[in-house]
Structures are given as C-alpha cells and as structure tokens.
Amino acid sequence: MSGADRAYLQVNQPDGVPPLELTGERTLPDVPEENYWYRRHVAVYEWIAARCAGLRVADLACGEGYGSDLLAERASEVIGVDANPEAFEHARARYRRPNLGFRRGLVEDFDDPVDAVVFLQTIEHVHQPDRLLAQVAEVAPVAYISTPNRLTLAPAGAERSDNPWHLREYDPADYRELLRPHFDRVDLFGLFHARKLRAHELAIRVGWNRIHPALQITKPFYDRFIPAIGARDFRLRAGGLDSALDLVAICHS
After folding, report:
1. CA torsion angle for 133, 135, 137, 140 (degrees, to 10)?
2. pLDDT tens figures, 167-212
3. What is the pTM (predicted TM-score) of this model?
4. What domains appear along the chain, each with residue ranges and CATH number?
5. DSSP, residue by residue, 74-102
C-alpha cells in the first residue's frame, strides 16, 4: 500500500501531535491500511531491542519514531536521527522518555560513538551506501541493518520493484557483498511470515485468491484481517534466505 491512490493520515494522535501522511517512503503506525507493513517493521525492532538491553543506541532514519521508542524500552539511551522535518517534529512530540531523544540530520553525518546502530529498511534508499556503511562501522561495534529482499519484493527476474523510493534492491548474495567489506563479521537472518500470515500464505497456495473474489468477500475479509496482524505473525531465522521477506544483518566491527 503506497498511499498513491488516496491520502492516508494517522488517526487518533495525542493532543499536540501532528499526524503524518503516508507517502510510501516510510511506514507509519495508526494507519489501519498500513498495519501489515508497520507490524512487519515492529517485529524486527522488537527482536533487536532484546539484544540492546543497557546499550547506547542510535536509530538512524528513525522516521515517525515508533522504533526508537521500542528500543528505548530496553536500551540505556536511544538517539533517533532523521532528516525529514515533519517526521522529526512528530517523533519528538509523540515519544517522550528520559532515555530517548531525537535529532534532525542526515544519517551520513552521524558520528557520535554508540554501542549499537540500528538502520532498518533504508539502505535501499541511499545514493552512496558504501560511504554510509563505513561511517556506521566507525561509530559502533555492532550494527543492525535491514533491507527488503528483492527476490520476494520485485517481480521474478526484475532488478527492482516499482517502489519509487528505492534506488537499489538486494538479494541475499548482493547484500552480503555490500556489507562484508565494511565489517569483520556479518550474520544474516531473514524475516518470514508466521501464525496467521503463514496460514494465509498456505491458503493462497490452495486457491484462496480465486475464492474470495468469487464469494464477493474480499473487502470485508481484509478489512478485518489486516488490522488484526501483529508482530508475532512474523519471525526471524537464519536459513532459507531466498524466500525471506526482509534481510536483517548483524554486523560486527
């Protein structure tokens, strides 16, 4: 869901917090139609947060700020960095913790020493990824970096999807090749559907996409199904990466 066909604004924002519009560049909470993508991101943030307990963390390209807030539940300090002025103002107005702060700036310019860098679903937007990765390796001993898997995002055989914000998309081999020159060790994991999303996958294989249009239940079904998706409907694991939705790297400097 790109937001190209109509405007989608966040709903039910706290007083004094300006809602953001969904443009397709970043995902947002509080947009019911976007819930699948939001929960897909949350699953990865929660997985990383469990590994960042007690650490000083930089969340680069933090967007709306929900991920930085999740990290701050476990980390000793979180700095969320984003260049977009609307996202920055929204994040600092909405997410308030003593150990959480936001900065407006280019991620390429971040040079504070931290214990860990988190940089999710953004490397595919970057004009000079090698320059940025070299900077990340300088500021932190460990970085968590993710990207969508081109093999499951783009049409078969295509070099990229139709997402206008993506400059380059990576398959697992491409991604390892991008990361390895900058880090001493790269451990690669994949994000996969689980629970009801896995059941939905299996239903599609046996013909669900023919059944729901024929029964004229497509909209009622998905109006309920999509908002019900949670972070537990995704799981991370090593292996089988060609079929992963997203590629999540733990990079050690």
Report:
1. -130
2. 999 999 999 999 999 999 999 999 999 999 999 999 999 999 999 9
3. 0.94
4. 8-192+237-252 (3.40.50.150)
5. TSSEEEEEE--HHHHHHHHHH---TTEEE
